[in-house]
Amino acid sequence: MPITTCIFDAYGTLFDVAAAARQAASDPSFAAIKDDWPALAEHWRAKQLQYTWLRAVTDAHTDFWEVTQQGLDWALEKTGHDGDLALRERLLALYWELQSYPEVPLMLHSLKDAGLNTAILSNGSPDMLDGAVQSAGIADVLDDCLSVQSVGIFKPDARVYDLVGQRFDCAKDEVLFVSSNGWDAAAATGYGFTTAWVNRAGEPVDRLPWVPAHKLSDLSGIPALAAV
């Protein structure tokens, strides 16, 4: 069946998760992370994801904001900045205002002009997602923001992917699911979606039972994939 619905992961896919640390590092008030902000950002993101997986498998769900704070606290200690409370406060504030990747607005406008459904499907809590969407100025080209909060478990549980069909009344093969997380795109492939992995960092393919149908270096090629 033709693609009718394009679904996007949020963090790392539409929104640059390194932007908070990069922006803070440019502020003279936080010169302490001027040189090691990339490591701080990488550790923060890695722990944020790891904590979602661990909470999912141990049935210890919480909201994504708590996981985000806990991941940052680990990263700050790892990089030797755990005593800087002002830095912590600034990084958390900036996470609500993450920048989108440059190609995102035009890509989403192209999908809407083609008459496709567009939405976010994310581990993020609704208020966090709303903050990022408003900050990026893309609310008018998204039909919805679907959050795992409504099912109480993080990706890649199938109940999360079920939210798409429930919202848009579409078959699985009508969905193009896009994520920057290889494991997310792989799991969505196993679920039955057509998938695209946005592999910005040139990472190897995850060794899982499924592989994404398409691999891209950024999101500019999504409208062409959706039209196939």
Number of domains: 2
Tell me the structural class.
Answer: alpha/beta
Low-confidence stretches: none
The CATH class name of the largest domain reads: Alpha Beta
N-to-C span: 10 Å
Biggest β-sheet description: 6 strands, parallel
Tally of contiguous helical segments: 9
Looking at CATH, the homologous superfamily of the largest domain is HAD superfamily/HAD-like
- The overall strand count is 6
CATH topology of the largest domain: Rossmann fold
Helix-strand pattern, N to C?
EHHHHHEHEHEHEEH
Structure explained in plain terms:
This protein has nine helices and six strands, in the order βαααααβαβαβαββα. The longest helix is centred in the first third of the chain and has 21 residues, at 37-57. It is of the alpha/beta class. α1 crosses α4 and α2 crosses α3 (64-78). 44% of the residues lie in helices and 12% in strands. It has a six-stranded parallel β-sheet, with helices on both faces. The chain has two domains: 5-15 and 101-226, Rossmann fold, CATH 3.40.50; 19-95, Putative phosphatase, domain 2 (DNA polymerase, domain 1), CATH 1.10.150.
A few lines on this structure:
With about 230 residues, the protein is α/β, with parallel strands linked by helices.
Give the secondary structure arrangement, pairings included.
Elements (H helix, E strand, L loop, with lengths): L4 E4 L10 H7 L11 H21 L6 H15 L6 H11 L8 H10 L3 E6 L3 H11 L7 E4 L10 H11 L6 E5 L2 H10 L2 E5 L15 E3 L5 H5 L2
Parallel strand pairs: 1-2, 1-4, 2-3, 4-5, 5-6
